[in-house]
From TrEMBL:
Residue ranges of the TM segments: 51-71
Official protein name in the record: Uncharacterized protein
The keyword Transmembrane belongs to this UniProt entry's keyword annotation: yes
Keyword Transmembrane in annotation: yes
Keyword tags: Membrane, Transmembrane, Transmembrane helix
Region (Disordered): 82-106
Organism for this UniProt entry: Botrimarina colliarenosi
Amino acid sequence: MMHSVLKTKVSLIRIFVASTTLAGSVAWGCPYCNSDVGKEVAAGIFNEDFWFNGALTLLPLPAMLLIVALMRFGAPWNSRSELPPAPTAHRTEAPQSDSTPNSETP
């Protein structure tokens, strides 16, 4: 059992190393990265407004998370915190009184 777990971990590490190595070689294959156009694009992205633009991009995320949390857990002012009513003991029906008409008697 332990041997198979170790083999699985080693396989995952090999996959990770291979994928990161191949991803680096793919990035070097980009024809625009070292060209003038690529340098202009990088200069436009990584300028002095980079962190401000990044913050504006991530700004809707807390609002979306709040909406999802409200849908999942409900509003905090909801009355879900009340305890349900206590279960009642099983009651047998009371015998009928003699004042009700009985179809068996004339």
